[in-house]
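Case study 2.
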Amino acid sequence: MAPMRREPSERDTATSMRRRAIIKALSLATIGMSAIGTLRQTAAALEPRGRKTPALFVGHGSPMNAVLDNAWSRRWAEIGAQLEPPTAILCVSAHWETRGTHVTAMDRPRTIHDFSGFPDELNNKRYPAPGSPAIARQTAEMVRSAPVGLDQAWGLDHGSWSVLAQMFPRADVPVIQLSLDTTRSPEAHYELARELTALRERGVLVLGSGNIVHNLRRADRRLADSGFDWALEFDARVKGLIDAGDHRALIRYDQLGRAAQLSIPTSEHYLPLLYALAVKGEAEPIAYFNDAATMGSISMRSLIIG
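Prediction:
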């Protein structure tokens, strides 16, 4: 004969509820207050804000700008102070190229020192911003033109953190990175970026980090505050096309003549500009900052949309 099943008493139920409450409290204590704040921010990001968060393209230049007090870094800090704090940041950096498109989806992205020959002050620099697996998943789901992998290995390279360390020095805003797929054409990059426009309505700051003109082989460190004629010519040409709203010409940069060929020997520093422009609304204003050249062959021109 099977034993009779005892129904739980009110005392048993109360004890069980207390145990669950204790376990929940211990779990929250383990997470920590900073992580709780990040979870709250992530939850908020999944809902529209009713207004667009600005988008940025930043000419990042040397990694040393992360630790130097100079004209470039001071302007980054000013921009960061002027912005309404974003819920999260999606960065497209020149320094993460992959086969296929990927987005970082870890809770705590590592600081990547993807350079050599710099002083300890830079090599020891860390940017401990949290990630956001939830926003990474949302970003991947928004893209219909290509599968987007959820990456657990990359982190934040210097194209991201060298700028963010000056712009958001508290490192309290979640940051995710989107890779540059080396198999995609500039037009395909632009079209993919357009699919991310809705992130801006959810408080996510879209940040492209590269340089409009970037030719290190022709760089001259003696020209700290000036550019070669061809570099200045192409930088001005790009500004004119941006002001005219001629994104098609900017996508087809390889048809813009010799100055373009010298300014963009490889595309990875230019493509983040297309990501910023692609999420721009038709009537949104653009303002420029750090609109100067350095080392002859690097343009630091940056812009803010919205």
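The chain has one domain: 46-305.
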